[in-house]
Write a structure and sequence with these properties.
Blueprint: E1 2-5, H1 8-21, E2 29-37, E3 40-41, E4 49-50, E5 55-57, E6 61-73, E7 78-80, E8 85-89, E9 96-99, E10 107-114, H2 118-121, H3 136-139, E11 150-160, E12 166-173, E13 179-189, E14 193-200, H4 201-206, E15 219-220, H5 227-239, E16 240-249, H6 290-300, H7 313-316, H8 363-372, H9 381-390, H10 394-401, H11 409-421, H12 429-434, H13 442-451, E17 455-456, E18 461-462, H14 467-470, E19 480-481, H15 493-497, E20 506-507, H16 529-537, H17 548-551, H18 562-572, H19 578-582
Parallel strand pairs: 2-14, 12-15
Antiparallel strand pairs: 1-16, 2-3, 2-9, 4-5, 5-11, 6-7, 6-8, 6-10, 6-11, 10-13, 11-12, 14-16, 17-18, 19-20
């Protein structure tokens, strides 16, 4: 929906006209959240703001859930809008949403909840479609194995006077924190309207109960009685202010994606996942069919895709290593080596960006890039097409997978995408223990508890704090983070965006099968899980881009005991899938 601003006088005249003509038939309400600080548009990743305690701070993440929208008619009755849920995220540029099923009538106020009612909050998060606001793979706001959602997440960095830069993480959650927001409308609301609402960070942090990151605490996970949470809850009603009312213009909906070049009689591929995983967003224009999966499998293992016919995709993504490489950098053609460590290639159906730096938006795009990389396969796509066309096996395989039978770069990408999407992993000792089919040892159970517990001395929590980036059934949030590695010569995401705020940020790999995918990190610098845990335990490199969830920890690190380190390793080893151990 496009919006057009109208003056209050014109708005009043329009409302009166609609009332007199009996045309008050609102059906859809468009809402646009405008994130501000003291009335000015919020700029993310910018250490330019100051709170009431004279602390300079930035915001790197602002994400929240709104629900249970209601409209008050002119008699004072509140009309509940069923199934009205919205997820808003500033860094994802997700600030606009619409509320359907608006009843006929005229309305003088709107109210909604920050957070969810108890039923929704404790519902099964894996039941929701891929594009639903409560799908945990979409919003990254679920509390993972502990249950429930984070209602509001605000994260960033701060500095007090000339002190060192550190991080803050405020996660506002739990049933008792659900907060009702009521906004009076200056004029009655009719027809297909649009509201623009300000969300003011200054009001959230400063008034009427000012918060100090230094004095009150740099993190909260909404434990009962936490004064930070009480202040946030007290400040929330003043955070939302109506900016203006607009009239929404109807726009033509985008045409749904149609399958690309399907064969006459495709065979649907049985894509099976665990009920403990979110529903993925499989590509609608490249549905999984057996013919494409098998063609993609053949291409993935074929060294003809390289210039000297010696390197295949499988050369760097080996099944015995959970589709990763035991070398820090993989061997390419002509004595070259890859720039970065080869990431494992399972559960890719849940990702929305690929490579360590997130440069590819789709798997079909990602699949073709290594072919032309001089460090990896060093071949041109045109030459690959000529090789496949001359190979007697491939023309019939392409004819089975595509209606046109054409051997093209696009069809190669679609076939490899189909194959990669079919690679899933969800059957480990840990998964079986969750289902009551196996038992974790005392050390493994202790490791799991450490993994899922935050490090927050203020609330007497001393866990390993792994779950912020590696939580949920996928054991990754699929976001890009700076995890404090020392001496990075690689800009990571910043190399793609050109934004210094993205420097040193790399995609978070899943910890499933992590015992099989050594060495670790984007450059393969750590040979063992013990070395990885020591990295987080003994202190990280401090810099402006360090993820707030890590920057809030002591400069000396978590200082885990030897027993706790061993327990974490024991737990991580329970995440190995037998299909890779046996294959």
């Amino acid at each position: 929906m496009k919006t057009t601003f109208i003056s209050p006088h014109r708005w009043l005249a329009l409302c009166l006209s609609l009332l007199l003509c009996g045309q008050a038939t609102a059906r859809t309400l468009d809402v646009s959240m405008r994130h501000t600080l003291s009335g000015q548009p919020l700029i993310l990743d910018s250490l330019r703001y100051q709170n009431a305690s004279k602390e300079t701070f930035s915001i790197t993440r602002l994400s929240y859930l709104l629900s249970d929208f209601e409209l008050q008619n002119r008699t004072g009755e509140w009309i509940h809008i069923p199934d009205s849920i919205a997820w808003v995220d500033a860094s994802k540029h997700r600030s606009d949403f619409h509320i359907d099923s608006i009843p006929e009538g005229t309305f003088q106020a709107i109210r909604f909840s920050v957070g969810l009612n108890e039923t929704l909050n404790h519902s099964d998060p894996n039941q929701y479609p891929a594009d639903h606001p409560l799908n945990p793979s979409l919003n990254n706001l679920h509390w993972n194995w502990q249950g429930g959602y984070i209602f509001l997440a605000i994260e960033g960095h701060f500095r007090k006077a000339e002190s060192d830069l550190t991080g803050y993480v405020y996660h506002f959650a739990n049933d008792a924190q659900r907060t009702t927001i009521t906004i009076a409308l200056p004029k009655v609301l009719t027809n297909d309207a649009a509201l623009e609402i300000d969300f003011d960070i200054a009001a959230l942090l400063n008034a009427p109960k000012p918060l100090s990151f230094t004095e009150d605490g740099a993190s909260t996970h909404s434990h009962e009685g936490d004064p930070i949470v009480q202040s946030l809850k007290h400040n929330l009603p003043g955070t939302f202010q109506l900016r203006r009312i607009l009239i929404a213009k109807e726009t033509v909906a985008a045409a749904p994606l149609k399958p690309i070049d399907l064969p006459a009689s495709p065979t649907p591929y049985g894509f099976t996942i665990s009920q403990r995983l979110p529903i993925p967003a499989l590509p609608l224009d490249n549905p999984l069919i057996t013919e494409r999966v098998e063609l993609g499998r053949r291409l993935f293992h074929d060294p003809q895709l390289s210039i000297d016919n010696t390197v295949s995709c499988a050369s760097c993504h080996q099944e015995a290593h959970a589709l990763s490489d035991p070398k820090p950098q993989s061997d390419g053609v002509n004595g070259q080596v890859s720039r970065r460590h080869s990431m494992p290639l399972f559960n890719l159906a849940w990702k929305d960006s690929f490579f360590w730096d997130g440069r590819a938006a789709t798997l079909r795009e990602q699949a073709l890039i290594p072919i032309e990389d001089p460090r990896e396969m060093g071949e041109s796509l045109d030459n690959v097409i000529q090789k496949l066309s001359a190979d007697a096996d491939y023309p019939p395989l392409f004819a089975q997978a595509f209606g046109s039978g054409a051997i093209t770069a696009e069809n190669m990408g679609l076939a490899i995408e189909n194959f990669l999407l079919s690679l899933t992993s969800y059957d480990s000792k840990f998964d079986r223990a969750i289902k009551g089919q196996a038992t974790l040892s005392d050390a493994e159970q202790r490791g799991f508890e450490l993994f899922m517990t935050e490090f927050e001395p203020r609330s007497r929590q001393y866990g390993a704090d792994c779950f912020h980036c590696h939580g949920g059934g996928l054991f990754t949030d699929h976001r890009l983070h700076d995890n404090g590695l020392e001496s990075i010569q690689d800009r990571g995401r910043g190399e793609i965006t050109g934004n210094p705020a993205d420097d040193n940020k790399f995609s978070t790999p899943s910890l499933r099968n992590v015992a099989l995918t050594a060495p670790y990190m984007h450059d393969g610098r750590f040979d063992t899980l013990e070395a990885v845990i020591e990295h987080y335990s003994s202190g990280l490199t401090q810099r402006d881009t360090l993820d707030p969830n890590l920057a809030k920890h002591p400069k000396s690190g978590l200082q885990l005991s030897e027993a706790d380190k061993e327990a974490l390793v024991a737990f991580l080893k329970t995440l190995s899938d037998p299909q890779y151990i046996q294959n």
